[in-house]
Amino acid sequence: MSDPCIICVAITGSVPTKAANPAVPISVAEQLESTHEAFEAGAAICHAHVRNPDETPSSDPEKFARLKEGLETHCPGMIIQFSTGGRSGAGRERGGMLPLRPDMASLSVGSNNFPTRVYENPPDLVAWLASEMQTYEVTPEIEAFDLSHILHAIRLHEAGALFGRLYVQFVMGVKNAMPADRRVFDFYVETMKTRAPGALWCAAGIGPTQIEVNEWAIAAGGHTRAGLEDNVRLDRETLAPSNAALIRRAVELCEKYERPVATPSQAREMLGLRPAAA
């Protein structure tokens, strides 16, 4: 198998804290340093949230702007993907950074249960976020927590409601949502192949399932995501020393399955993204 594998680093998220792992980057400066290390390790995409100094999630477009400027300076060519997830704000606050025109932004097209709450993605908000991404030419990364999310994303793309090439990420291992189940994963892959053959897909495992799902995705010819947002440990006892350490594990799996690691420029071409900012 010779197709390059796109590796995304999920640097921060909105849940892991320094109490859980001191390596979790909170400030924009910490995020830039951590992302640069992961970029050098092989990550082509940076999936980013921003935080307040007290570690709570933020939807502040100014923080996103500073992060974007820093990434463009210190990680030239890296694909910048901002999160529109529900922990960082309510309603249209979630898309407040889209006018900054990141290369990509996450988009959840349906609701589901999280460990202690409902992750709400009502149809009117999904339609508005997708419309804003069309306006600012931001390619969605569909975060699919359920089979229905995959099928709905395919329908939206066929209807012309999603900008750019369809890119679907299977998120597996979230408590009360879809577990990291190999038979389900294989069905997801087959669904993408038969219903959206022109699309790309990737997969992310949450918690201790991260490395397992990384391997499934790489072995099956897809793309993958790793990082401290999803998992703070190298194994059940050892804390991950950095985002880069988790990316290096994914790179080792690419070597195992003879998949070259996609460079940022290769990843941009595969995803149909505009050239990197000068």
TrEMBL record:
Q: Domain of life, per the record?
A: Bacteria
**Keyword set includes Membrane:** no
UniProt entry keywords in alphabetical sequence: Metal-binding, Transferase, Zinc
Q: Which cofactor does it need?
A: Zn(2+)
Would the keyword Metal-binding be found if you checked this record's keyword annotation?
yes
Q: Please give the Pfam families that the UniProt record associates with this protein.
A: BKACE
Protein name, as recorded: 3-keto-5-aminohexanoate cleavage protein
